[in-house]
UniProtKB/TrEMBL annotation:
Residues 2-63 form the HTH asnC-type domain. GO terms for cellular component: cytosol. Keywords: DNA-binding, Transcription, Transcription regulation. This is DNA-binding transcriptional regulator, Lrp family. One of its GO terms (molecular function) is sequence-specific DNA binding. GO terms for biological process: response to amino acid. It comes from the Bacteria. InterPro entries: AsnC-type_HTH_dom, Dimeric_a/b-barrel, Tscrpt_reg_AsnC-like, Tscrpt_reg_AsnC/Lrp_C, Tscrpt_reg_HTH_AsnC-type_CS, WH-like_DNA-bd_sf, WH_DNA-bd_sf.
Amino acid sequence: MLDSIDNLILLRLSQNSRISYTDLAKEVGLSGVAVKERIDRLVNQGIIEQFSIVINAEKLGKKISAYLELEVEPAHLDEILELLKANERVVVLYEMTGPCLLHVHYLVEDMDEVDRFMHESIYSLKGILRVENQILLKRHKNQDGLNI
């Protein structure tokens, strides 16, 4: 069971996962060692799955962020999942409820690369029944995980 200090630690880590144990300890009123022990416990319990960074894809040349909804034949689901997981352009891949529905988020440099991705990596796949491709116009909020 989490207490208010655990919740505060999770909140601060979600805002800045690089905060030092010392700085975090000052904020929550514990020693650095106690904070480290709590974070280790949260990791071991699977509450914290990973520490990560957010990379601005646009600054690295990936100017187009797009989303696919793919309906696939059940017999081809595993094969399609493996191919999409291995594709470097695919950054998020979810299997959703419904008729074998996959949600795919991919990043590319320009519209020519959208076309190449769709033809080489999607339309060529055996077992695709339906494709909906949506290009992100503007991001207003981006958050992974749970609000604390």
